[in-house]
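Retry 2 of 3 after timeout on previous attempt. Resubmitting C-alpha cells to design endpoint.
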C-alpha cells in the first residue's frame, strides 16, 4: 500500500478534477472514481492508503461504502465529504469509523491539514504495530529473567491481569525494570494486538504533558498549527504507560483522575470530551505515601491507580537471579555485536553477586555491555568489570572510578574502542554506550576524533570539564 496514495470518490466532475489536480501538486499519488461502485473496482488495482468520498451520490452512498471498506480493508482511512445540512450524517460516519469529514464548500487549506494529520497518524499506527510484533516476542514471560520468590509473585500477577483491564501501579527503585513489567502485562493480555504507548512524565515539560497525553486542537496554544491526537487516542484499547507518575503536578493529577473515573479525556482547546478504553499502568520510584502526606500527590488518584500494585524488588534483594540475568544479557549483547557470547569467570560472577548494584538491572546491563565492548578476548574476568564503587571480587577489591584527568582519559578510550568495534557506525556505538547520538557527537568533538575513533588533532576540552559516559 502506497504511503501517499489517495482515492477520490465524487459524482461531481468539477470536485473530482479540482481535488485530483490539487493533491497531485502536493505530491500525492491520486486516482478518482465517479461512484462507490466504480471505487470498489478501482480498489483492486490502485490499493489506496486513504479514501476521500462524498456521502450523497447516485447508487450506493458514502456511508454504505464506508461500511464495506471497514469490513474488507480495515486499514484504509476514510475521509467523508458532507454538506452543512448533512451534519447528522457526518456524525454517523464518524461513529462508523471515518477518520474525519470535510464540509462543502471545500477549503483546500483544511483538506491539506486533514491529509497531513491522517498520514501522520497512519505512520504512528504502523510503527506501533511493528513495535508490537517485535515486542510480543521480547516481552513473553519466559524472557523476564528471575526465579526468586519476588519475581515469581510478579509472574503470577501478570497472569491474573491478562484476564482484566484494571489499572496497575508499579513501584520500585530506578533501573529495576518497571517498564519491562508494564510491557509484559500488556503483551500477555487480551489486548496485546493494540498499541502500548509510554510517556516519561518527568521528561516532558508540565506545559506540554497534557497535550502529549490528551492531544490538542489547532490554535489552542502557540505552535499548535494543526489538530494532534494524544497518546490516549493512539492507544485505543491498548495501554498507556505513565512512568515517573510521582513527579507530576497537582493540576495534571486532577485531569488524570478524571480519565480514570469517567473513562474520558478532553484535548487541549476542545469543547467536548472523548472516550478512552485504554488501560493505565503507572510507575514510580518515589515514596507516594510521603508525597500524599505532604500534599504533593492526590490520595484519590493513588487509590484509582493502585487497583493492582506490583513492587519490583531491587537487584540486591534477589541476588540468586544475577547469574540468570548475566547469562541473558551476555547473549543479548553478543548478538548486537555479532560475536559469540563471552564466558564469565567464576570470580567475576561471584563479584557481581556480591555487589550491591545501586543502579539495579540497568546498571548490570550497562556493565556487561561495557565489558563485552572493551574485552580483548572471549572471557569476561574481574578486570573487565568497572563498577561505580568499591566492592569485593573474589578476594580482590575494585577501586572507585578515577576522578579528574584519568576519568577524561578513560572516557576517550572507551569512545575510541566502541567506534572502532562498530566500524564507525555512530548509531550502533551510541546504543552500546547507552547514550544519545547527539551526546556521542559531542564526545567525538570534545576528544577531537574522527567518526572512526582516530585522533584528528590534540584533544581539547572547550568547557574545561570531563563528564563520564554514565552521566549522559
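Retry 2 succeeded. Sequence:
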Amino acid at each position: 500500500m502506497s504511503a501517499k496514495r489517495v482515492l477520490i470518490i465524487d459524482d461531481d466532475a468539477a470536485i473530482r478534477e479540482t481535488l485530483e489536480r490539487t493533491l497531485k501538486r502536493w505530491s500525492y499519488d491520486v486516482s478518482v472514481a465517479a461512484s462507490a461502485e466504480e471505487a470498489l473496482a478501482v480498489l483492486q488495482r490502485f490499493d489506496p492508503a486513504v479514501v476521500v468520498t462524498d456521502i450523497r451520490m447516485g447508487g450506493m452512498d458514502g456511508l454504505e461504502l464506508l461500511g464495506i471498506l471497514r469490513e474488507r480493508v480495515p486499514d484504509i482511512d476514510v475521509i467523508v465529504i458532507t454538506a452543512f445540512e448533512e451534519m447528522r450524517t457526518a456524525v454517523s460516519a464518524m461513529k462508523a469509523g471515518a477518520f474525519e469529514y470535510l464540509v462543502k464548500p471545500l477549503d483546500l487549506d483544511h483538506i491539506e491539514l486533514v491529509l497531513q494529520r491522517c498520514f501522520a497518524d497512519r505512520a504512528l499506527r504502523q510503527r506501533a504495530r511493528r513495535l508490537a510484533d517485535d515486542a510480543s516476542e521480547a516481552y513473553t514471560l519466559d524472557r523476564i529473567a528471575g526465579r526468586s520468590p519476588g519475581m515469581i509473585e510478579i509472574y503470577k500477577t501478570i497472569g491474573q491481569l491478562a484476564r482484566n483491564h484494571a489499572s496497575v501501579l508499579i513501584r520500585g527503585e530506578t533501573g529495576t525494570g518497571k517498564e519491562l513489567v508494564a510491557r509484559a502485562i500488556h503483551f500477555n493480555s487480551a489486548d496485546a494486538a493494540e498499541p502500548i504507548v509510554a510517556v516519561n512524565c518527568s521528561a516532558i515539560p508540565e506545559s506540554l504533558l497534557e497535550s502529549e497525553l490528551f492531544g490538542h486542537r489547532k490554535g489552542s496554544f502557540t505552535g499548535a498549527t494543526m489538530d494532534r491526537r494524544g497518546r490516549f487516542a493512539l492507544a485505543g484499547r491498548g495501554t498507556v504507560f505513565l512512568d515517573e507518575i510521582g513527579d507530576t503536578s497537582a493540576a495534571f493529577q486532577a485531569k488524570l483522575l478524571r480519565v480514570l473515573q469517567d473513562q474520558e479525556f478532553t484535548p487541549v482547546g476542545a469543547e467536548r470530551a472523548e472516550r478512552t478504553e485504554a488501560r493505565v499502568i503507572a510507575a514510580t520510584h518515589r515514596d507516594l505515601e510521603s508525597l500524599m502526606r505532604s500534599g504533593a500527590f492526590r490520595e484519590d488518584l493513588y487509590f484509582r491507580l493502585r487497583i493492582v500494585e506490583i513492587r519490583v524488588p531491587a537487584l540486591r534483594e534477589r541476588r540468586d537471579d544475577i547469574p540468570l540475568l548475566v547469562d541473558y544479557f551476555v547473549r543479548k549483547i553478543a548478538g548486537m555485536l555479532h560475536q559469540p557470547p563471552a564466558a564469565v569467570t567464576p570470580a567475576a560472577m561471584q563479584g557481581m553477586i556480591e555487589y550491591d548494584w545501586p543502579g539495579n538491572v540497568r546498571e548490570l546491563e550497562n556493565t556487561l555491555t561495557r565489558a563485552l565492548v572493551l574485552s580483548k578476548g572471549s572471557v569476561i574476568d574481574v578486570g573487565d568489570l568497572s563498577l561505580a564503587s568499591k566492592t569485593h571480587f573474589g578476594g580482590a577489591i575494585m577501586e572507585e572510578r578515577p576522578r579528574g584527568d584519568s576519568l577524561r582519559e578513560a572516557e576517550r578510550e572507551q569512545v575510541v574502542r566502541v567506534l572502532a568495534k562498530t566500524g564507525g557506525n555512530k548509531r550502533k556505538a551510541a546504543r552500546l554506550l547507552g547514550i544519545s547520538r547527539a551526546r556521542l557527537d559531542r564526545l567525538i568533538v570534545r576528544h577531537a576524533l574522527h567518526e572512526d575513533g582516530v585522533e584528528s588533532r590534540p584533544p581539547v576540552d572547550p568547557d574545561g570539564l570531563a563528564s563520564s559516559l554514565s552521566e549522559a
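Attempt log closed. Residues 316-398 form a domain with the Helicase, Ruva Protein; domain 3 fold (CATH 1.10.8.60).
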